[in-house]
Amino acid sequence: MAEPPRSSSRRLKHWGWGYEDQQRPAHEIDEAAAGIRAMLGFGGEVQAAKPLDEVELRTPRLEAPADEGGLFSSDRHDRAVHALGKAYRDIVRGHRGEYANPPDLVARPTDEDDVAEVLERASDWGAAVIPFGGGTSVCGGIEPRLANEDRPSVSLDLTRLDRVLEIDHTSLAARIRAGCADRTWKISFANTT
Fold first, then answer.
1. Which domains are present in the chain?
2. Checking DSSP bridges between strand 153-157 and strand 105-107, what pairing results, if any?
3. For the chain, what is the radius of gyration of the CA atoms?
């Protein structure tokens, strides 16, 4: 099985789909806005996304343990990316810089032991743990809207759990980790016997 290269250091947009370096050229955005106004008779005003450094983001209520080798992060960008899904309402709120419920920490486990560590720490802190896969969450599942607004939360980012663990060539089944969803794999299931 051929493994794809590790992802680069590209950062996701804090407010919507895609990467920070994937923005349509200004003239295309202006043309689309003009088309919207012509079709609907209103709207289509172009506004830039609120820069993350101008966004009011609640101070984390938890401190990332220094001894965990990067397992936990309280970075503003990480917390903003993990605060909202990618439904239309989420993109609009993120574009406007409205992050009412950012997670206090983001955890990025690389194996099952790391997941256990995150769950144990969260239990000790009394924190909710919210799984984060691709981040689409069109139904609001990644947003930490808790009954107790004072309860801290940890976003459990599964993207580093990105390995194919086992392939059964007889049944054509594979056992893969949760972070493989956004990776492209070339796996040959051809029987070589």
1. 21-48 (no CATH), 51-182 (3.30.43.10)
2. parallel
3. 20
**Which residue matches tokens 């769950």?**
119
> Tens-digit pLDDT profile for the chain (193 aa)?
333 334 457 888 999 888 888 888 989 989 998 998 999 988 878 888 999 999 999 999 999 998 767 899 999 999 999 999 988 899 999 999 999 999 999 999 998 899 999 999 999 999 999 999 877 777 778 888 888 989 999 999 988 876 666 787 888 777 665 655 544 555 555 554 4
Global confidence as pTM:
0.78
Which residues contact residue 173 at a Cβ distance below 8 angstroms, ignoring those fewer than 6 apart? 167
Determine the Cα–Cα distance for residues 113 and 92; give it in Å rounded to an integer. 37
Question: Are the C-beta atoms of residues 189 and 170 closer than 8 Å to each other?
Answer: no
3-state secondary structure (DSSP) of residue 179 = helix
Q: Give the H or E element holding residue 112.
A: helix 112-125
For residue 103, give the nearest of 46, 49, 64 by alpha carbon.
64
CA end-to-end distance (rounded Å), the chain = 16
**Burial class (CB within 10 angstroms; exposed 0-12, middle 13-18, buried 19+) of 142:** buried
N residues, the chain: 193
